[in-house]
Amino acid sequence: MSITIVDYDAGNLRSVEKALAFLGAETRIERDPEKVRSAEKLILPGVGAFGLAMEQLRSFGLDDALRDAVAKGTPLLGICLGMQLLFEESEESPGAAGLGILPGKVLHFPASDGLKIPHMGWNSLKVRPDSRLLAGLPEDPYVYFVHSYYLKADRREDVAAQSEYGLVFDAAAEREQVFGCQFHPEKSSRTGLAILKNFISL
Question: Which of 61, 151, 168, 191 makes the best surface tag, with the fewest CB within 10 Å?
């Protein structure tokens, strides 16, 4: 089974590819919508701004390709901005619609004394016990974050893990075959590799 990493000029592709290769997974980097539609598994990475990323996905025809793949049950993992794009909207880019695969919005961290924005560094997760993506992790595992915006999912049952940085925020999402991590599993040492291994094994 191969994993297709979606290339839309906004992703941290190589570090994700390298981590998957370390785990023995066959990977492909694609921006052809038809190859995305027919992929066995998909990863949507992302670094940058929400609105621009959506423009780029649309320009390559990848927005509809991703929705079509999800509709037929293809496992999809969004990482960092890639997770945010799975939802409906972001305060970063007012008026820009996300993929809308899951309901919810992305909000900016409020200004707070002693907290630097963006949030960069290692934070622990409170993991939902029945999460498939985060199964088998140690209690309160630490993962690596780099973000200024955080997810607020509409449905609590879609939240696979939460973390805290001035406030409690949704750090991972999971619904059927759709998964998301606000943190970077490819930069999160053994814990991150275990998460990617879980996705490979789905």
Answer: 168
Dist CA 14 CA 137 (whole Å): 25
| Domain CATH code at residue 41 | 3.40.50.880
**Phi/psi zone of residue 135: left (φ > 0), alpha (ψ -120 to 50 degrees), beta?**
beta
Q: State the burial class of residue 126 (Cβ atoms within 10 Å of its Cβ: 0-12, 13-18, 19+).
A: middle
Q: Inform me whether the pLDDT recorded for 7 exceeds 80.
A: yes
Count of domains in the chain?
Answer: 1
C-alpha 159: how far from chain center: 12
Task: Look up the domain containing 95 and give its range.
Answer: 2-201
Active site residue 184: yes
Determine contact, residues 110/68, Cβ cutoff 8 Å.
Answer: no
Tell the residue number behind the tokens 């996705």, with chain if given. 199
User: Hey, which residues does 148 pair with through a beta bridge?
Assistant: none
Q: What is the pTM of this model?
A: 0.96
Which is catalytic among the residues 80, 147, 174, 181?
80
Chain segment 31-56, per-residue pLDDT in tens: 999 999 999 999 999 888 999 999 99
Name beta bridge partners: 15: none
Instruction: Specify the 3-state DSSP secondary structure of 196.
Output: helix
Is residue 186 part of the annotated active site? The answer reads yes
Instruction: State the catalytic residue, choosing from 30, 89, 92, 186.
Output: 186
Note if 181 is an active site residue. Answer: no
Phi, psi dihedral angles at 149 (to 5 degrees): -125, 150
